[in-house]
Amino acid sequence: VHYLALDVGGTSTRAVVVEADGRCVGYGTSGGGNPTASGGEEAAAAIAAAARVATAAAGAHADGIPAAVVAIAGESGLAGEPLRRALAATRLACDVVFENDVLATYHSGSLAAGGYAIVAGTGAVAIRLEGSRVVATVDGLGWLLGDAGSGFWIGRRVVRAVAAALDGRRPPTALAPPLLAELGIGADGPRADGRPAVLQALVDATYQLRPVELARFARLAFDAEAAGDEAASEIVAAAARALAVTGAAIASPDVATGPIVLGGSILARQPALADSVVTAMRAAGVAGPATTVPDGLAGAAVLALRRGGVAVDEAVFGRIRSSLATLR
Amino acid sequence: VHYLALDVGGTSTRAVVVEADGRCVGYGTSGGGNPTASGGEEAAAAIAAAARVATAAAGAHADGIPAAVVAIAGESGLAGEPLRRALAATRLACDVVFENDVLATYHSGSLAAGGYAIVAGTGAVAIRLEGSRVVATVDGLGWLLGDAGSGFWIGRRVVRAVAAALDGRRPPTALAPPLLAELGIGADGPRADGRPAVLQALVDATYQLRPVELARFARLAFDAEAAGDEAASEIVAAAARALAVTGAAIASPDVATGPIVLGGSILARQPALADSVVTAMRAAGVAGPATTVPDGLAGAAVLALRRGGVAVDEAVFGRIRSSLATLR
Question: Quick count: other Cβ atoms within 10 Å of Cβ A181?
Fold first, then answer.
């Protein structure tokens, strides 16, 4: 018997087919599957594609899968009709259950009934589990209202810092050359109303993007910070503070020894930011072990097995993680 | 002979018909006419409506107007085809010339060939004039890239501060009750994943808006600041600093005695922020007189007369301003 699990992100989607003993036997990836970030049709197509690749790799038949879980931000409410159509086209005979993607991240790192997951990728969010249920959520409010310390939050500050520098409001920053290069903006031209042509080109290029796409410029901040740039260092330090606030806000004395699972590209790749979160949670009285996970796929597999009525113990969990590691 | 001048803003559009001696003889208003904020068709309709009302009030015939000026952000480049069609329907026989709206604001306060205009309304921008030409522009980069200290900038921080407070990341703020009331969000309900229902309702309501619409929440910051709220005070203080940076960046020793014209709803209604800008410019060596204007309509009339070949001296300028004041 095969179970299907998907972990849907804004820039990539991952799928795995797992057996009842925890062995992962098929793996597939595709593009971003978040309907908010990519649009409903594109997101649905990405999710269906990852599911097809994983089931084909497993030699599994869609009609022999008793349970399928899709871990996705915003869960089913955001997923909508295009996603249901695309999943119907995969001929899964079972119902597809949507799960909180942050819960999946948590279960990529732990089976414990009480604990924390903090994710900073394109967005930023933290949850607290008690009795295996999500009892508190902090942030995860999206690019306009929240996501403090996230990839978008950092990337937005990168483009604003470069704009302010080109504008004469701030000193020059090492963030400018790589940002302009990435946007294909070349040498400066004539000024219009005293505004540098490169700045006008930056405006034109940036407003072509969906806001969340600014997340891709976050890594420029880390590169420039490492090179000692002041504007970049300010951005990274502010992100560390913002994520620490989120960590402190999710901490509770009721879950003092639960694990802290850190996920998302920002926390996975920036140990200093991960340290900032953990330090704030330690100060708030959380003593549990901290671990970093690459994504929510192993946890989605845990949730799929549970949905299929399979009890997931530490042996099964260990098999999920080790076999999944060999498939990627 | 009649000349037509329009001052187009994101929330309202104003039109005036002016005679060669400066007497304003027809006035009209309509809704927001900025294509970026309102969409091309709605913006064009607003602009045409204001023009019709003003020409009708003046008893002017559209085919007897030798010059018409439309002062608009982004100028003709953003105005586009719907606006050209809407203006054609007004049967103006003359060409319509698009002018920089900040230049119109400047000429609402001064005819001097060298000086400054700083505008903070929905957006925020500063220009410097030398020899009656705009030689420098600072900010005005829009909600995503700049507009530091603007109504949007403040309004965005208001909703983020309320979200952070409802989330437990920040202490409660007096900004919350009026914001929730304005969005029609009532008493709290059951929590989903530990997130307060009012917070989810705030997310749902806010993402329905166009980003620039958040500017309408800026006044909540000033109200709550006056009542001593800490989050609001931080926002207003940060706006004052941001606008001071813009003022300092536009200041030049080459235009040390030119006037400082302040415009836009934020600077017109918040003397403390206007003081912050002027103080920063004084510190940067600008000694010219500071004046606040309600909008760019008088300046648009100046530009329309000039386009029509009329020399605008202080007597004409005085007549524009006094007769316009009686019409509104």
Answer: 11
Q: What is the rounded average pLDDT of the residues B315-321? A: 97
Q: Which residue of B has its CA nearest to A153?
A: B144
Strand partners, A5: A16, A69
CB A13 within 8 A of CB A30: yes
Given B142, B167, B168, which is nearest A203 (Cβ)?
A: B142
Shortest distance between the Cα of B326 and any Cα of chain A, in A, equals 33
Residue B123 and residue B140 in contact, taking contact as beta carbons nearer than 8 Å: yes
User: Distance (Å, rounded) from C-alpha B251 to C-alpha B285?
Assistant: 7
Neighboring chain A residues of B168 at a CB cutoff of 8 Å: 136, 138, 249
Asked whether the predicted pLDDT for residue B212 surpasses 50, the reply is yes
Q: Which positions in chain B touch A164 (Cβ < 8 Å)?
A: 146, 148
In whole angstroms, what separates CA B74 from the centre of its chain? 12
Comparing CB atoms, the residue among A100, A139, A207 nearest residue B142 is: A207
Q: Which residues of A touch B135 (CB under 8 A)?
A: 194
Q: Chain-wide mean pLDDT for chain A?
A: 91
Q: Which of A201-210, A257-266, A277-286, B66-75 has the lowest mean pLDDT?
A: B66-75
pTM: 0.91
